[in-house]
Amino acid sequence: MDNSHRPPSSLIIEESLEPETLSATTSNQSTHDTDLGIGSQAETSITDVVSNAEIGWMEETSKAVTKFTTSESPVSPTAEILKSAILENITEVPATDDPEASYFGFYAWMTEIFFCVLSLSSLIVITTVLRAYDGKALPNLPMSITLNTFLAFFTTLTKATFMLSVAEAISQWKWNMLKNKERPLTDFLAVDSASRGMWGSFWIMGRFRMNHVAILGAVISLLGMATSPVTQQMIAYPLRLAQVEGIATVPTSSHFEDNNGFNVWHAIFAGVISTFDDPILPVSPVCSTPDCTFPQYKSIGMCAKAVNITSLLNVEVIPNSNADDWPYPAWTGMIAQNGSTAMNASLPNGISWVTPASVSYMAMPSNKTMAFANDTNMAFTAFEYMVLIWSNAGNITNFESNLTSQTPWKFEAVEVAIYLCLNTYETEMSQSQPSTNIVKSSYVPANVPNNVGNFLAGCWFEKFPGTPFGTQKFCDTGLYVDGNMTLVDPDDPSTTYSADAKALHSIDINLQEADLATFVSNGNMDPGIYATDTQSLALANVIYNDYENDLLLDPAEQFERVGTFYNSTANSLTNLMRTSSSTTVNGTAWKDETFVEIKWGWLVFLASQLVLSIIFLLITVISTYRMRIPAMKSSALAMLLAPAEEIRDKIGDIGHFEEATKRSGGMKVRLINNGLVVSPGRFQADDNA
């Protein structure tokens, strides 16, 4: 290194020294400690503070000054003046052992600090941009750039910039660790290798075993391998429903008025021929997209409620019955008359069912309720009380045989009320599949003048030879009246819902005629089935499931199926009420949308590496400053200048590189201001090798 620009160290000379003493003192200073690499200092020293970095320059200066001041030639006045001037100038030069300012302190690390700031800025950009798109629809960025491309670029930039600082900081530690302690030369090589890549990081982790601060840099380097794939986990693209412009309506009605008897009959007919497997559901909404949602809404409608009344049945055995005991003459010839056992299942309101067939049921409207006798609201709003009685004895009565016992068969009974009601609905369309649920239902009559009550009329069977099914049905009919049946909304008593009395009268008549039905089977496959109305087979399938093969005789399941069947009729009438009105409820149309979901936890991995890098750099900068070591880092020039001639003499030259590599493991070195020197007595390699 050229030292011509460096100021000389101050030399303090005792005025009382004789030339001989000064010469001896100067001679002593030139003796060097080969371990520490600094000149030894005598008690009567020419110098008080000597810079180790400039010891060579000071030796030459000291010899010149000594020769001049100890000269035995006569001293002329001019010589004395020159001598005094030299001594005076040397004394006034301030002492220093600091390296050049450009290679020392924070100023020497400005590049690394800049890269850390750039890395932090890149991380802030990542956070800002992803935060802006978090929870938003998938963006259309210029040039078809995706968020993953953006994230990959800035992740690489973030990692690359802080890794530059980490690499330089690791390189500096190969110098720092030799300042206060001699180490094998291979430690120097290991740390230098760690600053260059993954394998060097593994090397020093295995060599130092977490006992050196440079390990932190190695850990950061190894973590960097997983940075890109880990940060890509931050962005997910799930689907969600997004609101769009479209049609979303569902019909509702606050008043029903339809005097078209065909519409009423058609709605009832659709209900009574429905089955448990294919019931009529509430009217579907109109939705221009596969998905629509609607607020809760209310509508006037018809409801059905079923109650088990089996406990009210009285079953009596009619032994040796014949056709005169049966309500249907057409059974003659199908069921054995001589000694056939018949059963009479009756209820307190006078309805009874006499049948010699163990697989049979009867459905009959009634104007006298048993299950709802104490429900005053039901008494006002009901259109029909339907009573069903069926036998669960099993298939035991066949043609020309009598396998029945005298023990009463098992009968079941249920009463169904069909009435005007006010329903609160929740409707949605999901993937083109409509779904409507009744949240709650009420049937509270409003306290208004001329509020019309129910139109109940009784129906009964009567033998009538010549009819297709051997019987005739008779139903009372009421008179047409003017007015409305009005219900009040319990949630808002000021709001009422109503239905026209004449329209309700039409429903009453058609319901009673349609719901009168019987079914009898003799247990054979052919044809062995006698019914009295259109709905008889449908209701028989509901009660017995498959009446031609395995019978359903579980009462609990039968009650559930019967309730669903009559709800189907109620839904059909409600749909008529809702669609005959022009009132609709507007909903919201939705479509599937891909949106951006940021999983911020994955960003911690990248951010923690940056934080560790900054900490590692600060530790390195501060340690280097306190050790008074130049920031040589990965400088190739420093690597060329550092080794003393002694090191090259000991381990060999580049022509014997492999042998030199082996020898370096046994050499311990230490850093002084002049460079790397061999610690005395530490070289273990075989010089004769």
UniProtKB/TrEMBL annotation:
Residues 7-23 have a biased composition (Low complexity). The chain crosses the membrane at residues 113-133, 145-167, 213-231, 600-625. Keywords: Membrane, Transmembrane, Transmembrane helix. Pfam families: DUF3176 (PF11374). Residues 1-41 are annotated as: Disordered. PANTHER family: DUF3176 DOMAIN-CONTAINING PROTEIN (PTHR35394). This is Uncharacterized protein. It comes from the Eukaryota. InterPro entries: DUF3176 (IPR021514).
